[in-house]
Specification:
10 helices, five-stranded mixed β-sheet, single chain
């Protein structure tokens, strides 16, 4: 029995059933979920947003697909966990929704706090090498570490992009339990996309006490970034490099960054904790990233997964 026999979700509580998934992992696999979940079963589905629903076309698709899901599971309760306040405003007219960034569910104990002082790298960018991540904005950073793989269908794009960084260190992959150590080696983290979701690495940077050089964006990654530990660059390589240089020369206290992030994240996590506890009638454990889009041990998948049929 392989991991491929399980649907992309995680059962947080069995009775009553509470399931977590990214919205399109569930909605685009709706027929498979219909085959796996008995008809008429009551359950609550917590759906996190993986892409910005601030975009009208994304919100419209979400509305239409949710309508299909509600017809397929008339006894189910669907709850959207949004990453940005603007998403809440768009979604509240057609579904139950709360502001609860997926970065609020990062487990702090997984991330060490960086030490003060000179760092190995001026900047770090954790991002798959794909066009929307806009790596080209980082080409003028002198001392850069890139972490991220690529899809085979974008191999040509990867080759063209990585060739622009002869001065950078590229790591195709770093195990999740060690990613914090790599973050702590950099004076700042980069967030360069114009549109995506909340971007897990932004929360990881902050938990490690590393400030962020950001660009204007849709998707909600700004929601939990402490305002004293983020600088906004214009959409050009000179501006990005200048803001990186600022953090190289004017570092922010790492513990203050981590504390600032946790202060912003706690109310959102507590909101979901209270919601889930109220449904279950007991305290429910909320794991790291709610254990969705995570590598799980087989026995965890066996106990908390939904098998395909």
């Amino acid at each position: 029995m392989s991991f491929f026999n399980y649907l992309p979700c995680y059962i947080l509580n069995h009775s009553p059933k509470i399931v977590a998934a990214f919205e399109m992992d569930f909605l685009r696999n709706l027929p498979a979920f219909q085959r796996a979940i008995p008809q008429g079963e009551k359950f609550t589905m917590l759906l996190q947003l993986g892409w910005s629903a601030e975009l009208p076309e994304v919100a419209s698709e979400l509305k239409n697909r949710l309508s299909e899901a509600k017809n397929a599971f008339p006894e189910a309760r669907f709850v959207i966990l949004a990453n940005a306040a603007e998403e809440v405003e768009k979604i509240k007219d057609f579904n139950e929704v709360y502001l609860a960034s997926h970065n609020a569910f990062l487990a702090p104990e997984r991330y060490p706090v960086a030490k003060s002082g000179k760092r190995k790298f001026d900047a770090l960018y954790i991002a798959r090498i794909t066009p929307f991540k806009r790596h080209e904005l980082a080409v003028k950073i002198k001392n850069l570490h890139l972490i991220g793989s690529y899809s085979e269908k974008e191999k040509e794009y990867f080759s063209e992009t990585i060739a622009k960084f002869p001065h950078a260190v590229w790591s195709q992959k770093v195990p999740s339990f060690f990613i914090g150590r790599k973050i702590c080696e950099a004076a700042c983290g980069l967030a360069l996309s114009a549109i995506e979701g909340a971007m897990f690495s932004c929360g990881e940077y902050s938990l490690c006490g590393v400030p962020v050089v950001n660009t204007k964006n849709l998707g909600g990654r700004d929601t939990l970034l402490p305002d004293f530990a983020v600088r906004y660059a214009d959409d050009n390589a000179d501006s990005v490099a200048e803001n990186v240089e600022y953090y190289v020369n004017d570092p922010v206290d790492p513990q203050e960054i981590r504390n600032g992030f946790l202060k912003l994240a706690l109310p959102q996590k507590e909101l979901v904790q209270e919601l889930v506890n109220g449904i279950a009638g007991k305290k429910v454990y909320l794991p790291h990233k709610l254990n969705i889009r995570c590598r799980l041990l087989f026995h965890t998948k066996f106990l908390h997964g939904i098998r395909r049929k």
